[in-house]
Structure formats: C-alpha cells, structure tokens
Amino acid sequence: MTPGRDEFGQELRRLCEEAGLTQVQLAARLGYHHTCVSKIESGAREPRIAFASTADDVLQAGGALLAVATKVRARLRANLMSGFPERASDRTTTSPMWTVYWRWTA
C-alpha cells in the first residue's frame, strides 16, 4: 500500500456503507470488476480520475471522491518527482514525452 491511496479507499468505503452497497454491487454499477474496487479501496491500486468521477456520481458524493482522488494523485506525482530534482522544472514544460506520460496516467 502506498501512503495516500488509502485516504481515497477509506472515503470510498464510507460512502459505500452509507449507500448500503457491497464492493460487488458498487463494481457492477461502475462497470468494473469487484477485485478492482477492492484493490482501490484497500490502497493497493491508485484511484484513476475516471473511476473517481463515476463512483462520485453513483454514490452521489457531490464531488468528494473526485476531490480526494485528485489530491491523492497530485501527492503521489509530487513524491515521484521528488526523486528527480533535475526533472522538477519539466512539470511546467510541454515536452512531448512529459505530456504523453501525464495524459496516460490521468
């Protein structure tokens, strides 16, 4: 588990419990396999923005899941880049490789 990912998972679990849904039921409504939902909920997998947005709609979270996912992903990206200080300035450039990476992970 990566620090930060569990923050999203905890919020997802809380909202599922409030809605009275199991992981299997939520997965069916989201169009994902229940193991994917389980991994995201446990923090073993990073929440994708598309997943968070869809889950936010299904659970009627009013943008809460999307906000947490965005914060978690930004924190994970910052931690990733902290190991490469010489590349930190690339975050503001539009180099083709950097753009492809960000689009692929978003």
Question: How would you describe this structure to a colleague?
Answer:
The protein is mainly α. Helix content is 67%, strand content 0%. It has six helices and no strands. The protein has helices at residues 5-19, 23-30, 34-42, 49-58, 64-82, 96-105. The chain is elongated, with a radius of gyration of 15 Å. The two termini are 20 Å apart. The model has no long low-confidence stretch (mean pLDDT 82).
Question: Between the first and last Cα atoms, what is the distance in angstroms?
Answer: 20 Å
Low-confidence stretches: none
Structural class: mainly alpha
- Could you tell me the strand content as a percent range? under 5%
Tell me the overall shape.
elongated
Helix-strand topology string: HHHHHH
Task: Give me the count of strands.
Answer: 0
Helix content: 55-70%
Report the major sheet. Answer: none
Number of helices: 6
- Summed over residues and divided by their number, the pLDDT gives a mean of 82
Radius of gyration, taken over Cα atoms and rounded to an integer in Å: 15 Å
